[in-house]
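hiii, so i know i said id send this last week but things got crazy w the move. better late than never?? heres the sequnce for the chain we talked about at the cafe, plus the structure i predicted for it. fair warning i was half asleep when i ran it
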Amino acid sequence: MEKPAAKSVNFKALLPEVWALMKPRRGILALGAVLMVINRLCGLALPVSTKYLINTVMLKHEMKLLVPIVLTVAGATLIQGVTSFSLTQLLSKAGQRLITEMRIRVQEHIGRLSVRFYDANKTGTLVSRIMSDVEGIRNLMGTGLVELTGGLLTAVISTILLFRISAMMTSVTLIVLILFGLLLQRAFKTVRPIFRERGKISAEVTGRLTETLGGVRVIKGYHAEAREAAVFAKGAHRLLDNVFSSLTTISLMTLGSTVLMGLVGAMIWYMGATQVSAGKMQVGDFSEYTLLLAFMVAPVVQIVNIGTQVSEALAGLERTREILREVPEDEDPHRIAPIPKIQGHVQFDHVNFSYEPGKPVLNDVSFDSPPGTVTALVGSSGSGKSTMIGLITAFHAPDSGTVWVDRVDLSTVKLAGYREQLGVVLQESFLFDGSIRDNVGFSRPDASEEQILEACRIARVDEFALNFPEGYGTVVGERGVKLSGGQKQRVSIARAILADPRILILDEATSSLDSESEALIQAGLNHLMRGRTTFVIAHRLSTIRRADQILVVEGGQIIERGNHQQLYALGGRYYDLYTRQHGVEANMFLAPGEGDKVESTSSLV
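okay and structure toks below
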């Protein structure tokens, strides 16, 4: 398949963004500009003094001027060194601060984007956007900027001085430089899209590498190390090909600049020697001209290297700007209604939803969950249960119909106030690489130590935490790898208990537990669900027998609803699912409700 052409970086469109970055630092830039002018003027002291050293001191033997000339050059060189050091300290540190601020800004912005955005982008890609894309921005603020603008300033001053010495030689030199500048412009137009594509490839490779490292147990379990190495090698070679493409262009530019230096030097030597022999120019003037010429031409050579860095920085800035243009979910103009402390009355009113146009996931879904009740969602995988939960948590909004919470349209409420009143316990308990205490306290950063310990006691976290040498300070490792599945789940339940939510989501909350662990946390879950509106997704139907209502979801529709006894007596889809798990023999001779007497004591609701 033919690869799409890399998108070029629109420098004019980036100018407002560049100015937005520079504006808060205009004081530093102004001071840098002053230091840069002083630095470059002092750098010209040596070539300008050469004329007087040769013509006056050496040829006319006016030795009294030797010491002043030497002291002037030495003083200018000292000032140049001090200003160079100051510029590096001032602008390099400012550039590093800019990188840090941009990383914080991008991470904060990405954190405010919708779940739909995360579904469309790999974790590693987003990490690359935050950490790598902004790295080159320092060249817009640091020493790269100094070298580029300072070189151009030196070139302008040198050109003026060169015209005063010989207008003819300078005109010829400028014609050659202008032609070379036009070639450089075309070369940079070629290399900018390559740098942009490099950022994209690098993000893809980083994304896959992140997945590989995170799924190392699955990879080893299927002995897929060689396959993953091959995938990474393919991505690394794509990146290498991109680098080779840019290196070819850059090498050609470097070759051109080197040839240019030699060509201009040869022409000036020929023309200068001719004029000195004819008595139209003194030797000192020719020496001064030669040195000043280097100051004029050198910035052109610098542009090849520095211009490449700036192009790479602009490519990264463009990719960063793409992220920052994404509208955060809490800035939705429709979400303006504040929501007070909720009672937890949730209603779906003829809700339709699809992730992609033309592929409906929910069709005309309606139900009512009064405050304090338990609603269980059952059905086969892909039936739409998790999507319904996603609408309750406001991760998505209906295409049509309404999700009401306490008779307020959920699509209009401010998300921060609403989600603070939610609690979620997922099938895969996500823990951060911190202590048990930190993970439990994540839901309420302002919680006291006593509140955290009480939540741990209710969820039976204390039964294993206190067996560790560090107790609640035990570090659980990345994604809680140092804990068992049941231990991680108990930490998640303690976290939800501490949050004290009004609406509780239990998504396969006990599927990873054995019977003993499930029985241990039964009391914790019962305590957590008491007085809250609870939604339960469960494939183990024994855990939802006592739900106030059970919704059987298939093909994005609610095909059955009622409590366990009603749905079992109906003999429909729920009956089919239940008897497949438990067998007809265990229930066929029982009257409705009698199954409770023989059911496992691990029932959660």
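btw The longest strand covers residues 346-356. thought thatd interest u
miss u guys!!
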